[in-house]
């Protein structure tokens, strides 16, 4: 089986243009040279890759299968060239990371602040997503690394246990609910809540769990950061559903109280995923390993 990268680039160009001449033009080949290379590729593969029809070139079922692998292979080659040239010229690499709000604020931001200070050659593109969307986004190659609450179910990702966290009710120190800890979640839904923004994964989760309990949260105010949430709770505005990791500093300083929840979903296992079947770049490996090896994060795995 012998063929060249040029043959694979031509195959991809023809598939996208649905035309032999259009594909040939895209990779700067003559039509006769493109036809010869395509025949050679089909001979090497041992299967027809296209159906020649009046309206153009249509992929066969075998061609559709090959296309998926060609896209991945060529993307890897481009990434390799980009990263090698980056090392040679001192350019920075970028890693795109999707995470739910709990892991983002409780673990990832503190880890990344230390990582970025020590690694000036890496930039991070960080985006908050709901846990139930992150795994599919990584499998679909929308980002390099994903961290979410729950366990991975897709064969399209490589999954590693990242951290263990707990959702609690953050309450003012003198609030009556503090004496009732631990409580069932429906029991606190009659209280006034301070919430993250309506678009945040934290609020979406709160709303969904309340809906399952047949209730709607009584929201006094939406704010945009967990620091603002905890300040409002400390001031007595209301209670809030937050990760213990996010509230750790306020709890240590006795600015708020923690009310444990007697719900199975309150204990949260966080999972780190990367794309399966695609060798990660050195930058992606570097970031993923740092996140997993952070001593604070690793300690939660031992306790969970």
Description of the structure:
The strands form three sheets. Strands 3, 4, 5, 6, 9, 10 and 11 form a seven-stranded mixed sheet that branches. Helix 1 crosses helix 4, helix 2 (20-26) crosses helix 3 (31-45) and helix 5 crosses helix 10. The chain has twelve helices and eleven strands. It folds into two domains: 5-88, Winged helix-like DNA-binding domain superfamily/Winged helix DNA-binding domain (Arc Repressor Mutant, subunit A), CATH 1.10.10; 93-304, D-Maltodextrin-Binding Protein, domain 2. The mean pLDDT is 90. It has 304 residues and is α/β, with parallel strands linked by helices.
Question: Topology of this protein?
Answer:
Blueprint: H1 5-17, H2 20-26, H3 31-45, E1 50-53, E2 56-59, H4 61-89, E3 93-99, H5 101-118, E4 122-128, H6 131-139, E5 145-149, E6 157-171, H7 185-188, E7 192-196, H8 201-212, E8 218-223, H9 226-234, E9 240-243, H10 244-252, E10 257-259, E11 267-275, H11 282-293, H12 295-303
Parallel strand pairs: 3-4, 3-5, 7-8
Antiparallel strand pairs: 1-2, 5-11, 6-9, 6-10, 6-11
